Batch of 3 targets.
Target 1
Amino acid sequence: MKSMIKSVALATIVVAAPLTLATTASAEGEKYVLVSHAPDSDSWWNTVKNGIALAGEQMGVEVEYRNPPTGDIADMARIIDQAAASGPNGIITTLADYDVLQGPIENAVASGVDVIIMNTGTPEQAREVGALMYVGQPEYDAGLAAGMRAKGDGVTSFLCVNHAIQQPTVGERCRGFADGLGVDLGDSMLDSGTDPSEIKNKVLAYLSANPETDGILTLGPVSADPTIAALEENGMAGDIYFGTFDLGEEIVKGIKSGVIQWGIDQQPFLQAYLPVVIMTNYHRYGVLPGNNINSGPGFVTADALSKVEEFAGEYR
């Protein structure tokens, strides 16, 4: 473990896209493309870029990161088509919207390109499109676990701040949370958008209109950071139960200060790192794990922040 952490700490931090990692193996033609649904503005994906950077370096392969600049899923579908046409050894991709992305992924598989699904989608959907496997967090189950934890802590009503309403799988976190609490989701899921100012104002408006709300769930730094600002503005920071998915610098600060009770770490570093390693070994030696890999969920609380705080936003 210590040697792995040391390697991670020494790895180059890569934050720009597109990202190409050319290594000694590129001459042998080993090339992989990771396609995500993330817009350029979402810094959470820097951890994913760092994961493929380290995996590419260690495995001696070329890895390229591609994404739709605005997060448009139709644009992502075109990027998958273009990636497959470039003739890589494999594509690692998110499956943010099954209906839109099913065709391009199945076409890539039919053309002879191996595919691994990561981060979004489900193991079942990965099988349906012909992918080798799925590496990620079961979203509904993670939400359910979070809801059961919140129920045990006395939460009875909640607001779920969803900054990615266009991605059906992300909404499963809110639905699972409601089921874990044993309440109807109803109007508790807020379509917040991604603009920080709008998110803060929408959260303030919701809490003002629904004063009985005693819990908040955010789905990542994009929604968590403005929600922290909203609670600081209305004086509820530290007084309302607050849990979030994913980690980031402001989330870690919030956990440390007691504003946030816990963050759910789906380990995006592993979601990117493992597919590169797995696919490379599959092509070189014909070995492949027999099951899909759950990279999360794991609850991060103030009791275990030292290593997380050190690498938040980079490898955690």
Target 2
Amino acid sequence: MNINAPVLLIFFNREEEVFQVIDAIRKCAPKSMYIACDGGRTEKEHMRILQLREKVRKSIDWDCKLHCFFSDNNLGCQWGPVSAINWVFENEDRCIILEDDCVPDTSFFGYCDQLLEKYADHENVWMISGENYLKDDFIFENSDYIFSLRTDTWGWATWKRAWEKCDFNLCRWPAYKKEKVLSHTYYMKNYDELDYMTKQLDNIYKKRDKSIWDYQWRFHMIINSGLCIVPRKNLVKNIGWGKHATHTKAKRAIWNVPTEKMDLQMKHPSCITANADFDRRYGKLLFEDKLSSYIKNKDIYDAVRILLIHYLKYFKG
């Protein structure tokens, strides 16, 4: 399989995982390949990363135009990925994006490539996700993908036209918070999502958390009524769980979904609008998984807290 869209691989210090991702990319042999790596946090770590960069560069052994973005400094989990994607969009109008712990099924590339072309000029379609953890074929009916207001970025694609609308410093967040913009998003009204999202955006704006970029992206999609394409089948598996991870230390059952192959003779939805049923059911799935995790870890306070938030909002309608 050959694809036209460029592929960006963002990696850091995970050697075993990154070569699994490269093996998957090699099967589609993109004509234009971008690789980006952040700098080490210590001199010792940076020396190891320099060696890994060279191994990764040599492993891109198919015929392609290879571009490298290697930082001398540690930009972190926020500005590292943002800087890498900014760099790609200096030269491209679209891109398929993978991080070093996200292993896709081969059909993921053709799925993204086709839909990047199909929706290139649809301003309200912001991204294409490779993930689907809600196994309910009824929601998809006769289509091979749906549109959602949610964002999953463990294997995804987007366009420059959407990316450049995002302010990762969240300069206008206080004004939007005052106007209670998030509360107008139907799926956030239950299951603790509104409170959790507000807290995350507060932490990012006040620079209490410098390890996040995807909540800014999700926020700008919400305020711009941006849509995410979600496949009927899960096309990407995260293999980066463990104590050395930044955000995925404890493995969660909700994301333990195997990848499947997508039929690339895709059946398209009849209209471009968010599937409210999917958005609400996914919220319920996330809520139940979080509650189960709190109970398993004996975090009774947090379990009671999110139950109270949920039921108070439910009875308020």
Target 3
Amino acid sequence: MKKGLTISAAILGLSMLFASCSGTTNRNYILATGGTSGTYYPFGGAIASIWSSKIENMNVTAQATGASAENLRLINKGEAELATVQNDVMDYAYNGTDMFAGEKLTNIMTIGTLYPEVVQIAVSKASGIKSIADFKGKRISVGAAGSGVEFNAKQIMEGYGLTFDDIKKSNLSFKESAEGIQNGTLDGCFITAGVPNSALQELAFTAGLILIPVDGAAADKICAKYSYYTKTTIPGGTYKGTDTDTAALAIKATLAVSSKLDEKSVYEMTKALFENLDELATAHAKGKEVTAAAAITGVSVPFHPGAIKYYKEIGLMK
């Protein structure tokens, strides 16, 4: 009996040694996403599936969370290795500003940006508003208190020489904001989300809306000061009654990664993601908006060395 145990132990030891030497040790990672009813969770699940199926000995699990701010804290604490986040919130966390004032997170890096989340500025037809410069004295919802939307509103209004003191500010959800415009208790609102947004779609079908552009010198000024913004266009026809294109600014959904994750793993992840975009697009509509070339735009937090290696390999970085 003792001899049998000794042989079994020897076999087990040899198996573990072989696994270690052959590099077959499984790499199990958590990808923090967002709420189950939002975009981040299913989109993150699609990315996790690509990584788990395309990269040998890697298993990535998409985890539902409270989204960007929580995700970045999870990475910083070592409770997740990866996350989908807004690039502006990531900037705040890395630099210890705005909603992260006094709380600088140092263990976060970037793999790349994914798709635009557009700052959509809607007003009622009765408001008479034609430009953000007309917001003075108006009733405007700027998103939930302390949210990324509220900071977007603050920064964009700043580009037009306005502050929150110049408006009658409300902090409402997207649905509440649209309802406020519909029932006449609000003149306008800021909504940062993918296009189209369901709350604005419903508003367009009921009371109607006008989209206010962010363009010209003001847009240039905002983008120069806050490098995480990119210029975009909301196509005419996105919402009922909006027949012409509207210039807008967008922040970008971004893949954040722990700075402690090894270069080889992050290189493999970056490569697998961008070499399987057709699969990502099949799994989720937002996948159609993802490209390697766009992934290096809107980034203000350093890239992980593994991501840099891939971008250099395909000629996007020197």
